[in-house]
């Protein structure tokens, strides 16, 4: 049998398979025992054997990826290894049944059919009975599931928190031998000190991704008429025959919204004093999925009494029964001038400042699912890109369109403003311009939203 120095044999194998160099002292090169190339070939084969599929990518939503990384695709099998996402969401289904929703920026590692690690970012893990024992490692500890749903966040400095949404998780901080059980609605930061329980906060995690929308109904006001006081609905499958939009002035002396040039054809300008538009269509009710998309131009001189509201319906009579989209005017809630959706008292506020006298395309998506609320079921988009939430306050979404105090759709008027003596936070009317309003009875994905942005139409159903 031919023999060589083990180092030479390893180098030959390494050159053929691009393996790393052996560690210093890891393989004898001296006059000691010789190892046959056959033995090291077997070692090479074992090191390079195909690793079994542990999981698959099942959903990707509004994602961007680091430069140089191959872009995952839906259906792609995942073996042991790391993957990174800069922005957006990715859902991974493990072969034993566990699912993980990653929110970028995140760095995640698949380690096996029942084993993974989160090195950075946020993840929600849902584990059915057949996948009990699923283990998620992090910089500060290990989590072992016993049939549950939980969220985990890992910061850039390695700080780690677990929030148990349902069921129970066995939590073992790094360096500890004993695990601690966390049950539903309990959370804990994992530190080098003793683990301390706190209340779970589901609002920090996206627990479901928008369902795929098939055939949809929608309203569409293009505001291209250029004259008169009515804008016709150009949509289909929603709101007929009550969806014409009527231009109004709250004061008898006012002229109402003004026709101006828009992003596509005409648009409407609102003066912030008494202009608004109303429609007899009551809006989309309850927790039903919806998307509201439009172009908006907000002046640089925007004042905090001119932000409410771009569009709304529902009522403020009970928590969660309103649906109002605005330019945030309330510094106590979040940064001023950002896209905002409120359901009273809950809200989501974006991060992009819109006060620049330029047209921006905005979309607010709310999708159905378990526990629909502002913390977990609302996404904001600005100019076709996901707009991460700067601030959230959680309320369940249950929009009321049938109650005695429920309002039908208004554009440019605060839902809280009912009479001239009303004193309302954020002002009674919106100042700025609006064009191409779409209200859709489905949760649109990023591709569909970008179609509205680029072509002013929904893509054909696939």
Written account of the structure:
The chain is mainly β and 462 residues long. The chain folds into 3 domains: 3-48, no CATH class; 55-204, Jelly Rolls, CATH 2.60.120; 218-455, Sandwich (Jelly Rolls), CATH 2.60.120.200. Helix content is 7%, strand content 39%. It has 3 helices and 33 strands. It has helices at residues 6-17, 37-48, 446-455, and strands at 3-4, 35-36, 55-64, 77-78, 81-85, 87-94, 99-112, 115-126, 135-138, 141-145, 149-154, 160-166, 168-173, 180-183, 186-190, 198-199, 218-221, 230-231, 245-249, 258-261, 266-271, 275-279, 290-297, 311-314, 322-327, 339-342, 347-349, 359-366, 378-382, 385-386, 391-393, 407-411, 431-440. Strands 3, 4, 5, 6, 7, 8, 9, 10, 11, 12, 13, 14, 15 and 16 form a 14-stranded mixed beta sheet that branches. Strand 13 and strand 14 (180-183) form a beta hairpin. The longest helix has 12 residues, at 6-17. The radius of gyration is 28 Å and the shape is elongated. The relative contact order is 0.11. Residues 28-35 have low confidence and may be disordered.
């Amino acid at each position: 049998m031919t023999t060589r120095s083990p180092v030479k044999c390893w180098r030959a194998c390494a050159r053929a398979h691009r393996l790393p160099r052996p560690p210093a002292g890891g393989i004898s090169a001296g006059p000691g025992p010789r190892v046959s190339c056959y033995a090291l070939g077997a070692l090479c084969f074992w090191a390079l054997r195909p690793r079994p599929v542990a999981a698959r990518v099942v959903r990707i939503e509004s994602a961007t990826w680091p430069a140089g990384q191959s872009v995952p695709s839906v259906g792609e099998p995942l073996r042991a290894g790391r993957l990174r996402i800069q922005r957006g969401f990715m859902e991974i289904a493990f072969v034993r049944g566990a699912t993980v929703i990653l929110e970028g920026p995140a760095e995640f590692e698949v380690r096996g059919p029942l084993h993974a690690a989160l090195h950075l970012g946020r993840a929600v893990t849902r584990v059915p009975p057949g996948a009990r024992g699923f283990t998620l490692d992090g910089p500060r500890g290990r989590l072992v599931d016993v049939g549950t749903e939980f969220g985990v966040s890992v910061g850039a400095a390695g700080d780690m928190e677990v929030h148990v949404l349902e069921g129970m998780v066995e939590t073992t901080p790094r360096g500890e031998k004993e695990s601690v059980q966390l049950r539903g609605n309990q959370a804990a930061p994992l530190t080098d000190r003793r683990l301390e329980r706190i209340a779970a906060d589901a609002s920090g995690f996206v627990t479901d991704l928008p369902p795929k929308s098939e055939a949809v109904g929608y309203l569409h006001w293009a505001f291209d008429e250029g004259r008169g006081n009515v804008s016709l609905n150009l949509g289909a499958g929603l709101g007929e025959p009550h969806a014409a939009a009527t231009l109004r002035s709250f004061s008898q002396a006012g002229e109402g919204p003004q026709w101006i040039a828009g992003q596509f054809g005409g648009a409407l300008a609102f003066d912030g004093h008494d202009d608004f538009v109303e429609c007899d269509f009551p809006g989309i009710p309850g927790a039903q999925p919806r998307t509201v998309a439009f172009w908006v131009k907000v002046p640089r001189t925007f004042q905090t009494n001119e932000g409410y509201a771009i569009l709304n319906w529902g009522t403020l009579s009970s928590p969660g029964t309103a649906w109002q989209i605005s330019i945030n005017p309330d510094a106590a809630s979040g940064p001023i001038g950002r896209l905002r959706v409120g359901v009273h008292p809950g809200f989501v506020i974006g991060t992009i400042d819109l006060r620049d006298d330029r047209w921006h395309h905005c979309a607010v998506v709310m999708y159905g699912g378990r526990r629909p609320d502002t913390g977990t079921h609302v996404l904001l988009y600005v100019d076709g890109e996901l707009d991460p939430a700067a601030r959230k306050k959680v309320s369940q979404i249950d929009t009321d369109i049938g109650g005695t105090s429920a309002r039908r759709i208004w554009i440019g008027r605060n839902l809280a403003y009912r009479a001239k003596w009303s004193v309302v936070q954020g002002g009674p009317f919106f100042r700025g311009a609006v064009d191409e309003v779409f209200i859709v009875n489905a949760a649109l994905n990023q591709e569909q939203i970008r179609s509205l942005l680029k072509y002013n139409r929904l893509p054909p159903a696939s």
